[in-house]
Amino acid sequence: MVKPGAQSNVEATLKHFAECLRSELGAERVLLFGSRARGTAERVRDYDFIVVARSFEGIHILDRGRGLRDIFYEVGGYAPMDLICLTPEEFEEARHRITLVAAVRPEAIDLLAPTAAAKVLRDNGVDVVQLAPVRPTCTRTVGTLAYVLEAQ
């Protein structure tokens, strides 16, 4: 479990990561799910994300997450992560079928919707400090994604 005093730093890092994905990829949703979203994670657990962005269109599903881990670590993320990267259409389709996306959707926190994230954390007994909107300082291009997009 994350120490209560460290939680606001974790939340700020997650918010910054999501904002960077919005600015660099045009991410529409960055969903945190699993034990981190439920507030039951041990300190060494990984982060589970679903990233929804139109910029993933035409990119093989296994290539979509390249470079995203680098962004996570650059903004202060410190743990391993699992990524599911979908286009908006794939996300909508997956929500209505028996899929991992549909199964985790009720517990997921949309990091681009700040009030939803704070509510879920509060509901799990985490003392949440209201954060000011984050202006991402992400200025680098996601190398592999840019390369894949240019190659098409």
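Above is the first protein from milestone M3; the second protein from the same milestone is given next.
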Amino acid sequence: MSKFCRFPNFPIVALLLYAIAALSGCASYEAQNTESLLSASGFRSRTPSTAAQQAMFNRMTPYKLERRVRNGKVLYAYADKAKNVVYIGGETEFQRYKQLGLQQSIAEQIWRRQKSTKKHRCTILVLTGDHGIHGGRIS
């Protein structure tokens, strides 16, 4: 094992953390992941502050990204009912959200594939702005 790979049990720890997240509820993990991607994509989080906003929020499907047209402009909204927060973004933020979701999916696939083929190897995956995914290995 290389002197640079200081975490030989990283796959075990990662698997343990994944199992804990699964046991605490996949839905909450999925919601947290989606909300992280929405925030990273530029969606704004808002708390309904008026009765009209609260009524609109209550009509929204929880934990589902919805497309709406308001005053001729396309908006996307995602309601987290547990936190009483709605994430709002436009077409630019939505396209960025889809791009980040794809990058995350590819990174997870690479991580799973490498985890299953090699033991005691650290893999570094970096998601960068407009440059995509870069991976490096330390053997």
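Note on the second protein: The chain has one domain: 10-138.
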